[in-house]
């Protein structure tokens, strides 16, 4: 259905023409519901039921995951290490309730799906470097990850709501600054820089993990410093292969929707993905990666 919408509703003007009485609701993410409205009653009910089921399973999974993370990795480890199973279950239920309320508030604040995606992208960009270095730099500890997640989330919230409220967004997007500043790109760059400085400071100001914990960690992941350079190279090449394939497929699909040079760019990215995959297979064959 999503692919068919590229042909039935190739742009916003086509959606506005099809729904002249709903002009104020037409946005970039309304093509899917516009397609649903064309289904007959039986299929419409089936699609609605599938959407509700997918929504419920996703929310339930994330609530359980979030509550278990807060209980096992934060509450039991730093707040109450001697917590009984009954106490952990109680705290988990309270955390799940708080997360549910927070999700509801966030859903009311966000105006469209793209806003949620941008927020998640901003949060993930700030913590990405730490999630890579934690496998190699033994000075990192639990507080490094906690501080990175908190700082990244606060920075993302500032760019999403604080910057427009204080006029910073409008100032950057006006006058000569609009030609020099790509706001989306600068949000990511500033978010990564701020979060990185924050978690590095926290790492240096908090105690390092004890030697026995690090030894067990190295044994568990089969750490070998001689394989570190080729392991990092495999990670970079693998990311290049995956992302080139994803964006290449996207440009090929949207090329039929009228995007200029969509086919050429999509084909080029798929070629890059194929080369990167070939190189990755050669590198994995030379490395003793478990």
Give a description of the structure.
- 78% of the residues lie in helices and 0% in strands.
- The chain has 290 residues and is an all-alpha fold.
- Among the domains are: 112-220, no CATH class; 224-290.
- The model has no long low-confidence stretch (mean pLDDT 83).
Describe the structure in brief.
By secondary structure, the protein is mainly alpha-helical.
Topology:
Layout: H1 2-8, H2 12-18, H3 31-36, H4 41-79, H5 85-109, H6 113-133, H7 142-165, H8 168-172, H9 177-180, H10 183-205, H11 211-221, H12 228-255, H13 262-286
Helix pairs in contact: 4-5, 6-7, 6-10, 7-10, 12-13
N-end to C-end Cα span: 40 Å
Beta-strand level of the residues, as a percent range? under 5%
Q: Tell me about the biggest sheet?
A: none
Portion in helices: over 70%
Strand runs, count: 0
Number of helices: 13
Shape: globular
Return the string of H and E elements.
Answer: HHHHHHHHHHHHH
Mean pLDDT equals 83
Task: Output the radius of gyration.
Answer: 24 Å
Structural class by secondary-structure content: mainly alpha
Any low-confidence stretches, pLDDT <50, length ≥5? none
Essential attributes:
13 helices, mainly alpha, globular, 290 residues
């Amino acid at each position: 259905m999503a692919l068919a919408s590229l042909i039935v509703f190739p742009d916003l003007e086509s959606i506005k023409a099809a729904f002249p009485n709903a002009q104020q609701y037409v946005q970039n993410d309304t093509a899917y519901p516009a397609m649903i409205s064309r289904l007959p009653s039986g299929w419409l009910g089936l699609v609605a039921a599938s959407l509700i089921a997918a929504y419920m399973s996703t929310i339930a999974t994330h609530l359980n995951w979030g509550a278990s993370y807060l209980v096992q990795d934060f509450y039991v480890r730093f707040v109450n290490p001697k917590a009984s199973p009954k106490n952990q279950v109680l705290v988990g239920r309270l955390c799940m309730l708080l997360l549910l309320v927070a999700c509801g508030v966030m859903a009311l604040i966000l105006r469209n799906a793209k806003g949620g995606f941008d927020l998640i992208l901003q949060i993930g960009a700030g913590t990405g470097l730490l999630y890579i270095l934690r496998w190699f730099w033994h000075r990192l500890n639990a507080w490094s990850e906690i501080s990175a997640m908190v700082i990244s989330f606060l920075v993302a919230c500032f760019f999403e709501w604080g910057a427009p409220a204080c006029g910073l967004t409008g100032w950057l997007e006006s006058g000569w600054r609009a030609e020099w500043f790509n706001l989306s790109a600068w949000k990511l760059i500033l978010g990564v820089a701020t979060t990185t400085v924050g978690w590095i400071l926290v790492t240096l100001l908090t105690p390092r993990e004890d030697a026995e914990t690090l030894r067990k960690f190295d044994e568990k992941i089969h750490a070998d410093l001689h394989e570190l350079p080729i392991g990092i190279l495999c990670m970079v090449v693998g990311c290049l292969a995956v992302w080139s394939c994803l964006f290449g497929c996207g440009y090929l699909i949207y090329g039929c929707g009228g995007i200029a040079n969509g086919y050429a760019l999509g084909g080029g990215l798929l070629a890059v993905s194929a080369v990167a995959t070939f190189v990755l297979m050669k590198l994995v064959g030379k490395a003793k990666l478990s």
